[in-house]
């Protein structure tokens, strides 16, 4: 009997999780559509909730801020980035692990179209660009010990300086790659553009 009850509870939990995931996805898709149609700053939380068929209170249970409705939670970006880099072999160099981390973050997008719309909004909305810059600086500081540990300690300038320069360069190349990708209406692959940017800088 206990085993049956436990199985039933597990099934209910799975159904609950699936229901939450579907609701969250519906809210995200609605928000992205409205942001694209009428602009990020012009779209209100109340409008998104109404269009998605939920209350504002329910919306905020899934997403902590309006900005999270665009990115699905920028803190998740940072977590995936640091987790990916932290799990890579110790002999992988700084450039290699940063590339792997950024690729893992890009893979969070549900589709190519969704990624394109999100990057387009990010690069064309001043308030979003400002918020992204602030969070990016925090992500870079979080990455510092992970990257510094992979730097050549005999290099000129010290490992902290070198690590900051490498991290900043990687993020700048991601920005350049995503902006070019948006300008080309999603042609090609962002990571191929990232590699080209990095080759230009390092070459």
> What's the shape?
globular
Summarize model confidence as the mean pLDDT: 85
Sheet bearing the most strands, described?
Answer: none
State the helicity in percent bands: over 70%
Percent range for β-strand residues: under 5%
CATH topology of the largest domain: Tetracycline Repressor, domain 2
How many domain modules? 2
Number of helices: 10
| N-to-C SSE string, H for helix and E for strand | HHHHHHHHHH
SS class: mainly alpha
What would you give as the CATH superfamily of the largest domain?
Tetracycline Repressor, domain 2
Radius of gyration: 20 Å
Terminal CA distance reads 68 Å
**pLDDT under 50 segments (min length 5)?**
1-12
CATH architecture of the largest domain: Orthogonal Bundle
The count of β-strands is 0
CATH class of the largest domain: Mainly Alpha
